[in-house]
Amino acid sequence: DAGITQSPRHKVTETGTPVTLRCHQTENHRYMYWYRQDPGHGLRLIHYSYGVKDTDKGEVSDGYSVSRSKTEDFLLTLESATSSQTSVYFCAISDLGGWYTEAFFGQGTRLTVV
Amino acid sequence: RKEVEQDPGPFNVPEGATVAFNCTYSNSASQSFFWYRQDCRKEPKLLMSVYSSGNEDGRFTAQLNRASQYISLLIRDSKLSDSATYLCVVNLLADRGSTLGRLYFGRGTQLTVWP
To answer: B76 vs chain A: nearest CA distance in angstroms?
Structure first.
């Protein structure tokens, strides 16, 4: 299995609090992605990174920010958590932006905002 | 309109059956195509890439029709262990010649194989 870990694996937080999810890889892959997965919507891209300090928005980026200060770490921050951000969050990595290369996923973080 | 559309199913088939999943994508500039498998409460994992000429991996056959913007996955001789959600995935490059791609996922098709 690819060396990709997410932390925490489960979190319950209150509305209005900031939350940071961490994705750590040991594969030295250039590209890292954050997705959320919700019933009826499938996987939706939040933000992605194509290098250290190089990030861009995905299709559902409102309310989220990211940072990548090192190749191996990609942080996702919910600036002020809302109940609509209750979801399963997946981090993924790939070597060539997905161009016929495999994207590897972390095991996911289940976030509940109450 | 979503970039990738899939029939969500569910598909319920007996062991040994042949089942086919279909997927359409909206952007003709899409460059590469995949099927991922996701087990319940687990992360998605690559099942197979889909090439223009079609490709086969054991009981699994994938086809791509660029003219119709259509991708298919055929599973022959279904096994209980094939029960999962199958995700159609399309990579759209940011610019022609760029290696920066964004993966777009369909909502997934749920398959249950029963004994």
So the answer is: 24
